[in-house]
Design goal:
With 66 residues, this protein is mainly β. It has no helices and six strands. It starts with 6 loop residues before the first strand and ends with a strand.
């Protein structure tokens, strides 16, 4: 699902971990992706508001390598 701000919300089930995670990815005008949030099904965040919860560092922009 894509929200009004252009944030792509993706849910992924990892069978080996028996865990579902939800990701929020933002596509920039230059074509790179940036993780805005990443949380478990229990609502535990590893990334929140574009920053790693553990360190407070911003998430990097990612782009495709050819």
């Amino acid at each position: 699902m894509v929200n009004a701000d252009g944030l792509l919300n993706v849910m992924v089930y990892f069978p080996l971990l028996q865990q579902t995670r939800e990701f929020g990815l933002l596509l920039s005008k230059q074509g790179s992706l940036r993780a805005i949030y990443n949380r478990s099904e229990r609502g535990e965040y590893t990334i929140r508001d574009g920053k790693y919860v553990a360190t407070g560092a911003p998430t990097p922009s990612q782009q495709r390598c050819d």
